[in-house]
């Protein structure tokens, strides 16, 4: 479990440990969890993660069945294969949980995230921000003489890349929804 708390810059992932056959492999998994839509369920699911020291990289929740009062929680988490299996097993044992799908293992999936970017600037920076937004297919959803708000849907990597390019052009704020994912095909 301690390996989960390590970041890329930690000693565990240094170049000196690359040949260590005992080094734990850290994987990223996207889990889709169908639960009862009632008070306290999200807190219980999150409590499972925090109580055991597991990290959540992304979390989205929305009701998917109004009549059946069910919600879908999409969680992106990291850990060793053993930790991921523990998370899935523990989620599956919770009473308000109906289904747990590991979209990383069960099938190929489509993952998207929505983000809003506020960028300030004038002159060439403003022109460059608009040019990059067009390349990344970001929409301008608000504009003033000093700023833009761009809206973008895409993979987390695409959103990260756009943010990195907007940073020197005057990026001052980002709002992200977290990952929404579905298995491809009929699975």
From TrEMBL:
It catalyses: 2 pyruvate + H(+) = (2S)-2-acetolactate + CO2. Its EC number is 2.2.1.6. InterPro entries: Acetalactate_synth_ssu, Acetolactate_synth/TF_NikR_C, Acetolactate_synth_ssu_C, ACT-like_dom_sf, ACT_dom, AHAS_ACT, AHAS_small-like_ACT. Pathway: Amino-acid biosynthesis; L-valine biosynthesis; L-valine from pyruvate: step 1/4; Amino-acid biosynthesis; L-isoleucine biosynthesis; L-isoleucine from 2-oxobutanoate: step 1/4. Dimer of large and small chains. Catalyzes the conversion of 2 pyruvate molecules into acetolactate in the first common step of the biosynthetic pathway of the branched-amino acids such as leucine, isoleucine, and valine. Belongs to the acetolactate synthase small subunit family. This is Acetolactate synthase small subunit. It comes from Harenicola maris.
């Amino acid at each position: 479990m301690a390996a989960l708390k390590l970041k890329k810059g930690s000693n565990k992932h240094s170049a000196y440990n690359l040949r260590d056959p005992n080094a734990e492999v850290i994987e990223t998994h996207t889990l889709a969890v169908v639960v009862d839509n009632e008070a306290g369920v999200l807190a219980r699911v999150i409590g499972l993660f925090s109580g055991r020291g597991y990290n959540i990289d992304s979390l989205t929740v929305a009701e998917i069945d109004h009549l059946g009062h069910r919600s879908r929680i999409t969680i992106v988490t990291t850990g060793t294969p053993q930790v991921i299996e523990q998370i899935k097993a523990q989620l599956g044992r919770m009473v308000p949980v109906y289904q747990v799908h590991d979209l990383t293992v069960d099938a190929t999936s489509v993952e998207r995230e929505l983000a809003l970017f506020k960028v300030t600037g004038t002159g060439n920076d403003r022109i460059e921000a608009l040019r990059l937004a067009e390349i990344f297919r970001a929409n301008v959803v608000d504009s003033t003489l000093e700023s833009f708000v761009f809206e973008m849907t895409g993979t987390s990597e695409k959103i990260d890349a756009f943010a990195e390019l907007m940073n020197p052009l005057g990026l001052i704020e980002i709002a992200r929804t977290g990952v929404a994912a579905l298995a491809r095909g009929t699975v």
